[in-house]
Amino acid sequence: MLEIRCLSKKYKNNDKYSVRNVSLSVNAGEIFGFLGKNGAGKSTTIKCFTGIIPFDSGEVRICGYDLKKSPIHSKLNIGYVPDDHAVYENLTGREYVVFMGNIYGVDNNTLNERIERFSKFFSMSKYIDKQIRSYSHGMKQKISIMGALIHNPKLWVLDEPLMGLDPQSMSEIKNFMLEHKKNGNTVFFSSHNIDLIEKICDRVAIMHNGQILEVIDFNEFSKTGQSLEEYFLKLTKD
pTM (2 decimals)? Predict the structure, then answer.
């Protein structure tokens, strides 16, 4: 589903690599967590493998497509939700999701059916035809998610998706992560919510100072009786 090999990225006028020699393999039909302190390189890694920013060296493959050689085919398989829920606030929620669906070539019947289904699932039916600028933080996050999911991507990528959300919104997004996985797709999400990662993820990568320290399989980790929070803090202690 997602293959990253020896990925490195250094920003201009910066002597230090933000991401250095990162390799990951993420499988179809799993929820994969991405854990690290602020500044660890998580968002940079995500922006590199989603094609938002270029990387200096390494290889990224999405559903078998090389990101550099076949960027369009690669990106058609990705649904990305940034940490700042950037949306066009002068549009209504429906207009925004239709716009996203048109970009990905979703036919009108499928587009309308998914908008109705997502609106009900995310409790947005009453607000879908209102301007996005009138939305709360949580509603903007949910409309951003609807836009990212409208083409039913094989790989759904979320960067800090639950930050600042109320419990109801958090529950709705978490439940859709599980549903997306149930349909054979992959969810990759970065979060500081260690309890959530431990609860719903199949595996998690721990990143520190631009490198992957360890990839944990929770089927094995649960047998150790350790707390993920304690293990993470110990592993990333400077």
Answer: 0.90
